[in-house]
Amino acid sequence: MHLTLLLLAGQVAFSSSGAATADRLAAHLCAENFELVPAGHLSTRTVLADTSSSTFVLQVEGARSVRYELEATPRAVAELELFHRTVLALREVGLGETRGSTVAYVALEDSLSVEDRGMIIRGALGAGLGVTRTSTRATYRLCAARLRDVVTVGASLIDASCTPKASYTGSYVIRGLIERPPVPPARKLIPPVEVEAETPLWFGVEAALGVMWRTELDPVLSIGARGGRGMFGVRADVLLTVASNDRLQVYETFLVAGPQARFDLGDFEAFVALRIGAHLHQFSIDSDAGVRVNFTADLPAGIAYQLGPVALRLEVAPGIGRAREHVIGQEVLWSRGGGRVSATLGAAVEF
């Protein structure tokens, strides 16, 4: 079997016969921080070891070559001598001419016996992969475990976790794992749920001046508040009018409230509302005075334009109520119809 070993100081090609000893030699060199690659790839040094007979033959070639012959008995002592002589020879021969092509590396975890680790290294080399002890140059990770008589292996990308799952029966198992590295189970994705942004609350106050027509024109002052969420809300307003002469004073108050909708028109905003409430009619004629209360309703609509923090609002509100008049003898001192239309221009501030 041919192995290629890569030192930090250069590359080394290695070939041996005698599988068990070769496996242990490969594991020993990997533990010594040699990086192993298969024959035919980048190599500046070559190791040939024959351990199949009663004499171990070791030949190491680089810039120059050395050769050793070692007695193979006792076997354990001879193997230790072989491992030691191989490391020394690799450092002694110097760097030779670089030959071969690059190779993808796997990092092998140190979780097995020397024999099993050597067997997995031999399988990785047979699969056309380089083997390194560290993850610095590695693209993949190899992991292995033994359970009784079965060795299982696994492979993953270097930065992923590795779990032994496949029974090891030869280099083709490792080749298959690398060609189809296990993909971590996909996380169960929760279907996207559209969540609408919460529509903010709004609140504002307004004051406006204008006129109210009920067969006669009267000045009107309007003060109100409004609030809601999004385009819908409610509003409440107080409208005040006054009329007087030498004999009569009339003060009227409209207390109205109701729902409102508003519509965004870019720089402008349109609005419409429905208000119902009470119409308080307070009068004083000469020495006579009194208050009358009636139902009233109107339908204000208008448009607003935002100027910084203040909005200018123009509003027109047709409405209904009760007609009233004050008469002394044949003289009509004050008269207003039941229908009305008010028009106001004001300013509003919204919070």
Largest sheet: 10 strands, antiparallel
- Total tally of structural domains: 2
Mean pLDDT: 83
Based on secondary structure, the structural category is: alpha+beta
How many H/I helices? 4
Shape: rod-shaped
Distance between the termini: 85 Å
pLDDT < 50 runs, ≥5 residues: 1-12, 182-186
How many distinct beta strands? Answer: 23
What is the helical fraction, as a range of percent?
A: 10-25%
Radius of gyration: 50 Å
What fraction strand? over 45%
The helix/strand order is EEHEEEEHEHEEEEHEEEEEEEEEEEE
Features:
351 residues, alpha+beta, Porin, 2 domains, ten-stranded antiparallel beta sheet, six-stranded mixed beta sheet, 23 strands, 15% helix, disordered N terminus
Can you lay out the helices and strands and say which pair or pack?
Elements: E1 2-7, E2 10-17, H1 19-31, E3 35-38, E4 46-50, E5 55-61, E6 65-71, H2 75-92, E7 105-108, H3 114-126, E8 130-132, E9 140-147, E10 150-157, E11 166-167, H4 171-179, E12 201-213, E13 217-229, E14 232-244, E15 248-265, E16 268-273, E17 275-285, E18 288-298, E19 301-307, E20 310-320, E21 324-328, E22 331-336, E23 339-350
Parallel strand pairs: 2-4, 7-8, 7-9
Antiparallel strand pairs: 1-2, 1-3, 4-5, 5-6, 9-10, 10-11, 12-13, 12-23, 13-14, 14-15, 15-16, 15-17, 16-19, 17-18, 18-20, 19-20, 20-23, 21-22
Helix pairs in contact: 1-2, 1-3, 3-4
